[in-house]
Amino acid sequence: MMRTARGRPASFYILAALMAALLVFLYAPMACVYILSFQGSEGGMSFPMVGWSTHWFQVLFEGTGGQGIGDVPNSFRRSVRLAACVSILSTLVAVSAGMAYRRKFPGSNFVFYSAIASMVLPSIFIGFGIALTFNLLGWQVNWFTSGIGAQLTWSLPFGLLIMFIVLGRFNPAYEEAATDLGANSSQRFRMIILPIILPGVIGIFVSSITSSYEENARTQLNVGLGNTMPMEITGLLTGASTPVLFAIGTLTSFAMFTLILGAVGLMTVMAKRRANRPDA
């Protein structure tokens, strides 16, 4: 294998260049959004920049109505409430299901494939089916019932798959040692299993937040009165758009990156603490 003067193989630099190209492909379009969010007050939705300002952020924070802001504050609050409920429920159900699937039970394959099928079915028809079912039963659709249910059909399969991967790598020797020392099932879960799988649990929680916040097709027919953020932004795009949309995109990206980096940092600290234990 050909090596450079520093000793690294040429394939290292080729792969590094491909990785850099991938990052540029992924994030360069987003950089345009971030730059345009600082457009001047007389600026429009495209380049060139007409001055630099935080005007569109001020418009976003100062009230509803006017300059293309729509009902963003209420939509944001509705989406945050949905994401909080969906992420908690997805995490609890995924962890419980993962623990249950450690042992074979009748109908396990049917339950598993039924849950996974929700990932490949057309989202709009799943949302329509949930709304139609509520209508047939005479129930009113709203974000707390049909809205959460519709979003769980999207976030829960991913949580299940993550949990299966995490538990598939779990070394049962730790649990067997705890059993030999007299630990009951509750103690084994709280003191052995949960600390080991906790990074994966945090991953499910964070991925459920992001998948809920951006979900639109299944939610739009089941959220009841008022819009979520994706629905509101879609509505703003069809009207007289202003750079306030870019301000929303910048703040949303900042919040999501903060959430992801916070989760990664938390998992890193937990891994270091576990590695530094005297008995590790």
Describe this structure in words.
This protein has helices spanning 10-36, 55-62, 72-100, 108-120, 123-137, 143-168, 172-180, 185-214, 229-237, 244-276. It is mostly helical. α3 packs across α9 and α4 (108-120) crosses α6 (143-168). It is globular. The model has no long low-confidence stretch (mean pLDDT 85).
Secondary-structure blueprint of this entry?
Elements: H1 10-36, H2 55-62, H3 72-100, H4 108-120, H5 123-137, H6 143-168, H7 172-180, H8 185-214, H9 229-237, H10 244-276
Helix pairs in contact: 1-10, 2-10, 3-6, 3-8, 3-9, 4-6, 5-6, 6-8, 7-8, 8-10
Brief account:
The protein is an all-alpha fold and 280 residues long. The protein has ten helices and no strands.
Strand content: under 5%
Helix content: over 70%
Total E-strand runs: 0
- Unreliable spans: none
Task: Assign an overall shape.
Answer: globular
- Give the end-to-end Cα distance, rounded to a whole number of Å: 38 Å
Largest sheet: number of strands, sense, barrel closure:
none
- Cα-atom Rg, whole angstroms? 24 Å
Chain-averaged pLDDT: 85
Task: Please give the count of helices.
Answer: 10
Based on secondary structure, the structural category is mainly alpha
Spell out the helices and strands N to C.
HHHHHHHHHH
